[in-house]
Amino acid sequence: MLVRPLPRSLDPLPGESLPGYVLRLGHRLDRAPGRIAVLTGLGRQIPQRSTPAVPAGRLLHLPPETAAAFAHATRLSAQEVAGLCLDSVRARYPPVDLTYETGVLRQTSGIAGLASWVFTRSTRYCPQCLAGDGTPIQQTHGAAWQKLWRLPPVFACTAHRRLLLHDCPECRQPVHACQSGSLLPRLHDSTLHPTQCRTTIGAGAHWRAQSVCGARLDSSTRPTTAGRQDPALEPLLVVQHKLLGLLAPGGPPETSSVGQPTTVAQYFLDLRLLVGLLCASWPEGRQSAESWIRVEAIDGHLQRQRQQAADRLQQGRKLSHRLVVGDRPPVESAACGSLLALADQLLALDDPVDTQQRLDPLLARASTQSPWVRHLLHVEANCSPGLRTAIGPHVRTLRDTIGPHAASSSGRSRPAQDHAFGPQHIPQYLPADWYDRHFNDLTGINPRHLRRFASITLMQMAAGRSRPAAARQLGLPPGRGSATSYRVQRWARDNANSTRLHAALEALAGELDAASDLIDYRQRRHALTAWSIPTDNWHQLIADVKQRQRGRASTRTDWSDRKRLAASVLVWARITQGEYRLAPLLADAWPPRRRRELARGTQHVSSWGRTGRPEHHYVALLAALDTYADQLAVRIDAGWTPPPPDQRDIRQPRLRHPAT
Ligand SMILES: [Zn+2]
Ligand SMILES: [Zn+2]
């Protein structure tokens, strides 16, 4: 949709988040935030739906066209628009960098699961900050919802010397929480002030029973669990001060970790590893914690997480990676700040030997859990030189114990994500309709590579296997899978490409998660591994086609066995949604000359069948093959396996022998 400048706009406040800006602008123009999102190009209206679609990912990053449209509508500079998104801190804080997210898919980059280190589903807040500074504009529309409140390492307000809150004091629900992956809840609601709670009370009930909480979150008078006079808060504020300094745009380029200089980004990855280690080994670190560390808050967080895991298992659901290895920092500020403070203390020790002695009991305890060991071996490579020196001996022992393949970059298996679709539901080559719905606007890359790559990635998501293993499961020869990955990854080095690719994959995975009529492609592939059209079926097919042919042509048509095999390849490709070039009948096991001839023949049938004149026999043949394939697919889906090929129908492969 064409975006026009709004009648009036608003200057962003320092540190303001994109959803916060949309709320204030909507309030100023007396429009619902969803309407503002549509008018500024952030989202789109869906026919017959009251709520527009505005993806939550917008708070991290805006694609260039979206950013330009938004700047045009709001009359902000490109720099002001970029500053509203969280990826403006990506050089210092890797989890907000979407290319790292694609890196999860990219097997080689190796930082998995970082997304849990950004709160995209709710936000923390300081009620006193929200109350504003008394200027008329803030008195009218409220103050900024700070973008950094979305980052786990920001757990306190150093200006108001207090811990941040994460839920509404009235309804006790996480603030700005959305089930639907939307930028904000109640996008259609124009009645709320930007600082009011937007939680729907009685969600899921009949709409008449639903209402909005509407509690003001900007009150400075509410009592909180962490009062201003609490002296135990002081050390936590010191840690917060340090972390905010490292996140600041003009902050130091380097810091130190375990006595060695390191980049700020590596330092945050160190913190992430150690917070996970503390959780996995808890209560091992509890004894040595100083009195101001809120150990009860950490106890509470871990208890809730364990309960959540137990509930899911009881419901027969898979555990997400985050729950298995505990790599999700608590949203509750006291627990999160305490864990970060403990981790920071360990990193602040200058002597690697000292650090090693402190870490050893934690590592020993956590390493009794094999998912956590895999996690450690997976992420330690991205940590600072100091921390790697300290944990080096332990890591080497683990690698020696579990073998070189368990965590090497090529053979590494990724933890299974929490998906409802399974490995059996992924075809070798992304079906055209899936591609059209989600990947159609991705340009600059050969669609064939994209379709292969997407299938391999979906297989990875479903099976939690390495990329080569996923490609193998799909029946791709090793060379094809890696060549495709190489091309797509090179193309995805461009930030915009990787963002769009990631979004498309996520959207498709979400669609598959929700679908109830998925096809078992694995069963289809298995059923047809050593299959070709049986000769009696072939003769029936030919008879059908001959009937449709005009008299003279039919006598000249070649109906040799080569054509039967070419037809078999096309039927295989249609049923399994595979690339015909990768059909078992064209596999490396067959002599090269036979493969070349058959590939040429198949290509011939396929292209003439599509583009030939209607009376041409290829057109009739292809139509007959499609019908035949669809009937065969129904039988295979019902559990039928075609009998192995008759020896008369097909010669078995003979390696390195000339074709006969
Ligand atoms: Zn504050
Ligand atoms: Zn509320």
What does this structure look like?
- The protein has 4 domains: 18-209, no CATH class; 252-402, no CATH class; 423-518; 525-650, no CATH class.
- Helix content is 49%, strand content 2%.
- The protein has helices at 18-29, 33-39, 64-74, 78-84, 98-105, 127-130, 136-141, 233-247, 264-281, 295-314, 321-325, 333-348, 352-366, 370-379, 385-402, 432-438, 447-463, 467-473, 478-491, 495-514, 521-527, 535-548, 551-556, 561-576, 592-611, 617-637, and strands at 156-157, 162-163, 200-201, 211-212, 254-257, 260-263.
- Strands 1-2 form a two-stranded antiparallel sheet. A two-stranded antiparallel sheet has the order 3-4. A two-stranded antiparallel sheet has the order 5-6.
- The protein is globular, with a radius of gyration of 29 Å.
- The protein binds zinc ion (2 copies).
- Residues 168, 170-171, 173, 197, 199, 213, 215 line the site of one zinc ion.
